[in-house]
Design goal:
By secondary structure, this protein is of the alpha/beta class. The chain is built from 14 helices and twelve strands. It has two domains: 240 residues, P-loop containing nucleotide triphosphate hydrolases (Rossmann fold); 73 residues, no CATH class. The strands form three sheets. The protein has a six-stranded mixed beta sheet with strand order 6-7-8-3-9-10, sandwiched between helices. The chain starts with a strand and ends with a helix. It binds adenosine-5'-triphosphate. Adenosine-5'-triphosphate binds next to helix 1. The site of adenosine-5'-triphosphate (ATP) has 11 residues, from helix 1. Belongs to the ABC transporter superfamily. It holds the Pfam family ABC_tran.
């Protein structure tokens, strides 16, 4: 568990603190996505966890221990770090890059070699094909995968990711979010992710922490953030498509009713999202889809979307 307790960071000459009185807890094995406008303090928050920046006030605890008490180099070896554009060493092979921390830790060669191959396979790169390549012989998405493999090589409990998929095209980005997100979940890593992409934050975060001018505005689950944004700033930040974003997170199977559709009807799986269900209804011109012997109606989808707009109405002053 990572816990910020009243953490303030000031840079010399700045008008206001980069991070101010931050209280935030990230539970073990969960992902916290930090979002907010440029300059709001996301990266500074992240960099204080591996002591690339030191707080002026407050403390940061990892599993109860104040990180200021130990040695920063030892701390960093236990924390994986993935940056935008990755920062792979250009003159070293993929294998040497992935082996960076295990080598520093003095692992035996055979153990390092086995670990490199296992990590490459984990992130979807065939070790035989990629092990000996240089970073400039990889696509942007492949480089990001190597960056994640390198960060995970020494099996750190914590992973810090700063705009990890910022440099890749939208299609590769969506795939990376899904694949890497699933891997991190399976490995039960505690992850702090800085992103500008609200879709990425909602997709990968168990918790989304929205910052503004160095302060935490709201920290909540993606669903709660969409249904009950704390204020107009949060609602604006989440943007116009909040209802659709929420539908994308809800499972069709959870909204189906017990009656079977009579005759032929378009089908959809229980695992599809309500947004996919809505797309299918629009594409096929029906208001009812079959899910095995149950059905999903347009009204059910509409009601799910309405939860967002009703909350919106609650907040509107009379
Ligand atoms: N090393 C530094 N020296 C002085 N000021 C800094 C330093 N690092 C960050 N700042 C300032 O602190 C504030 C917060 O910066 P930070 O990089 O944490 O924001 P951010 O939310 O990550 O921004 P972005 O989304 O643009 O990356 C900014 O005003 C920035 O100019």
């Amino acid at each position: 568990m990572i816990r910020f307790e009243g953490v303030t960071k000031r840079f010399p000459g700045a008008e206001r603190p980069a991070v101010e009185a931050l209280d935030l807890t990230v539970a073990e094995g969960t992902t916290c996505a930090l979002i907010g406008p440029s300059g709001c303090g996301k990266s500074t928050t992240l960099r204080m966890i591996n002591r690339l920046a030191e707080p002026d006030e407050g403390r940061i605890r990892i599993d109860g221990r104040d990180i200021a008490d130990g040695d920063p180099v030892t701390l960093r070896r236990g924390i994986g770090y993935v940056l935008q554009g990755v920062g792979l060493f250009p003159h070293r092979s993929v294998a040497q890059n992935v082996a960076t921390v295990p080598t520093l830790l003095g692992w035996p060669r055979a153990r390092i070699a086995a670990r490199v191959d296992a990590m490459l396979a984990l992130v979807g790169l065939d070790p035989g094909r990629f092990r000996d390549r240089r970073p400039d012989a990889l696509s942007g998405g492949q480089r990001q995968r190597v960056g994640v493999a390198r960060a995970l090589a020494a099996d750190p409990a914590i992973l810090l990711m700063d705009e990890p998929f910022g440099a890749v095209d939208p299609v590769a980005r969506t795939r990376l979010q899904a694949e890497i997100g699933a891997i991190l979940k399976r490995l039960r890593k505690t992850v702090i992710l800085v992103t500008h992409d609200i879709g990425e934050a909602l997709h990968m975060g168990d918790q989304v922490a929205l910052m503004r001018d160095g302060r935490l505005v709201q920290s909540a689950s993606p669903d709660r953030l969409l249904v009950a944004p704390a204020d107009a700033f949060t609602a604006d930040f989440l943007g116009e498509g909040r209802s659709l974003r929420r539908l994308a997170r809800l499972r069709a199977g959870d909204f189906a009713q017990a009656d079977a559709v009579e005759g032929m009807a378009p089908t959809i799986s229980d695992e599809a999202s309500l947004q996919e269900a809505l797309d299918r209804m629009l594409a096929t011109g029906t208001n009812r889809l079959a899910l095995g012997d149950r059905s999903l109606t347009l009204d059910a989808v509409r009601n799910a979307a309405r939860a967002v707009s009703e909350r919106e109405a609650d907040r509107t002053p009379p």
